[in-house]
Amino acid sequence: MSPAPPAAPPSATRAACLGPDGSFSHLIAEMRFPGLPVETLSSIAEVFDRAQADPHTVGIVPIENSSGGFIIDTVDRLIADGGNLYIQEELTLDVKLALLGHADPTVEVIYSHSMPFFHADEWLRQHYPTARRVAKPSTAVAAQLAAAEPGAAAIGPRQNARRHGLEVLHYPIAGEVPNMTQFFVISHQPPTPDATQNRSAWVVDLADRPGSLCLFLTPLSQRGINLKRLESRPIRGQPNQYRFYIEIEGSQAQSNVQAALDQARSDGASLRCLGAYTSGLTFVS
Prior knowledge:
The chain has helices at residues 24-32, 44-53, 72-80, 114-119, 121-127, 139-148, 159-164, 212-222, 255-266; strands spanning 14-18, 38-41, 57-65, 69-70, 86-94, 98-101, 109-112, 132-135, 152-156, 167-170, 180-187, 199-205, 227-234, 242-249, 270-284. The chain is of the alpha/beta class. It folds into three domains: 14-95 and 179-190, Periplasmic binding protein-like II (D-Maltodextrin-Binding Protein, domain 2, 3-Layer(aba) Sandwich); 98-170, D-Maltodextrin-Binding Protein, domain 2, CATH 3.40.190.10; 199-281, 2-Layer Sandwich (Alpha-Beta Plaits). Helix 8 (212-222) packs antiparallel against helix 9.
């Protein structure tokens, strides 16, 4: 694991994340905030709602998976919440999968989410070629089913073995490609840019004319600012109109970033900051 993370925001008394108990979101919430009670909820929207309603709750929401891609639900809520919630940190979970089951080595059926099946495909074909694979909504549900069924196993985080009375039959399951998931920590605390922050996120509205995106990106390129994410999102109620979600390296505490943003504004861009924060804190499941 990375060096010890900073303490939770002083106002935080609880955390909320996407459930159920034993999900990867739940796992990283417990690892990042070991001193806080964690509430698991059924959707990303509910995590945002809880954090928005309670200034003492920090939310943990997924933003990207190295294989599955961008989590649009998270981006759309960040854009739509109108400045009430901000990104505090980006966390990375290096997902190491385990095969969980009963002491009896006979495995006839394996439950998991579709993504772990994708990552473990070659390993499963080599070690359990005859076992049926059954996809479930989450690795937590898969572990629950495996615990209740003789001859069943589940693929997921090894921590779910203890939760459901299973054995860790194999860890880690070798994947063909790295399996990394990034999460945002969100709360009411507005951004206070400083030199330690290596990332910032923005909502960008541009004029609907040829070259407007190129005009916006040019000052970033000229000042050596790396663009990390860029997504166009439809504007609700305005057909064929779009705004952009971007993440860049650095924050407006740095003179080159501030100069690029000032130039973009003078060129007609409308900008709203969704957070200035640190990224790169990594945990291993």
